[in-house]
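Q: What does the assembly look like in three dimensions?
Context provided by user:
Components: two
Sequences:
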Amino acid sequence: GESVGLHLPTLSVQEGDNSIINCAYSNSASDYFIWYKQESGKGPQFIIDIRSNMDKRQGQRVTVLLNKTVKHLSLQIAATQPGDSAVYFCAENGVGYSTLTFGKGTMLLVSP
Amino acid sequence: SQTIHQWPATLVQPVGSPLSLECTVEGTSNPNLYWYRQAAGRGLQLLFYSVGIGQISSEVPQNLSASRPQDRQFILSSKKLLLSDSGFYLCAWAITGDTQYFGPGTRLTVL
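A: Here is the predicted structure of the complete assembly.
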């Protein structure tokens, strides 16, 4: 079936670097995409979203890029901090738009 | 603002015992509600979702069931727990077509 996948299971960066987490999706009909951050022992936390009529959306220190041509989604974190260490999930809206399909997750490790 | 609660936060249960996890949402009406399970170091598995009172969709046939007795209450149950039911259970709410917001989760250990 359709799925959302991630290229890198673990990403290690130095504090202050910019981080880029990637996600590939296969359902060309999806029109809504979300990035979540999950810290150990906690529920996923909404970071940023983007709809398919946009290519880029910016938040505080985060930017999401959507390339519909190659079905690719990325999350950029500027000036990464130790508090950014977590697992990051991408998600896309599924059939009927009542459910989301989640990627497997990428662990971001930030060294001081 | 909307808030979502789950309890208990942690639970240790013997194999064969019953289970009841509760999720409630405040600050919104007629939300979609979801139950997910997450194994250690793994992704999110959708178990059940509900678009209204009494309406339950099951994504994975298993030892669990869900009910929605009130608009903003979602319950996950089992009559007899299995070892494989251990995991981190997450409840979420959403308005159709919009972001899902997650609760703090319940850590279930079946011994």
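Follow-up: The domain at 3-110 of chain B is CATH 2.60.40.10 (Immunoglobulin-like).
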